[in-house]
Design a protein that fits this description.
With 148 residues, this protein is an alpha+beta fold. Helices cover 26% and strands 40% of the residues. The chain has helices at residues 25-33, 35-41, 122-137, 140-145; strands spanning 2-6, 15-21, 45-50, 60-65, 72-80, 85-90, 93-104, 107-114.
């Protein structure tokens, strides 16, 4: 099930969408933090490049959206691996944040948040990305090649 949430107490401008996925949190975190998977789950991402194959605090790189023929700079400005949470800026603007919440040894909730209400339509793209993540996380190829 996918849900949409307002955050009136913590951040009245923030909106999010989430999905419960029957796969371990570590696997989803791996998919979210390894660049080679971004174009597979990120419906708006055509190409991504950085100095490393994985993101961490301070990672900078270029992302090419599917709708624009130009590469835009990105910067990971929040990275909390102990809490399975990261956020970034694209072209200097606050973009999505990504959180994985373990529910059990074999399931988790993944949520994407947008920082401003005027970005609410982008949550439809995020919802599709969550579906893509679920399909990817439960595929035999990914199960064999990522953490349990």
């Amino acid at each position: 099930m996918t849900s949409l949430s307002l955050h009136p107490h913590t951040n009245p401008m923030k909106l999010s969408t989430s999905k419960t996925i029957n796969a371990p949190a570590e696997r989803l975190w791996h998919l979210l933090t390894h660049l080679n998977y971004w174009t597979k789950w990120g419906t708006s991402i055509a190409k991504v490049s950085a100095d490393s194959d994985t993101i961490s605090l301070g990672t900078c790189g270029l992302i090419t959206p599917r709708v624009l023929p130009i590469a835009l700079p990105f910067h990971v400005h929040i990275f909390e691996p102990d809490h399975y949470h990261w956020a970034w800026q694209v072209q200097g603007f606050e973009a999505t944040s990504h959180t994985v919440t373990p529910l059990s040894a074999h399931s988790c909730e993944v949520s994407f948040a947008v920082p401003h209400r005027h970005l609410a339509p982008y949550l439809l793209i995020c919802k599709r990305a969550l579906t893509n993540l679920e399909q990817l996380a439960t595929s035999p190829e990914v199960i064999r090649s990522t953490p349990p």
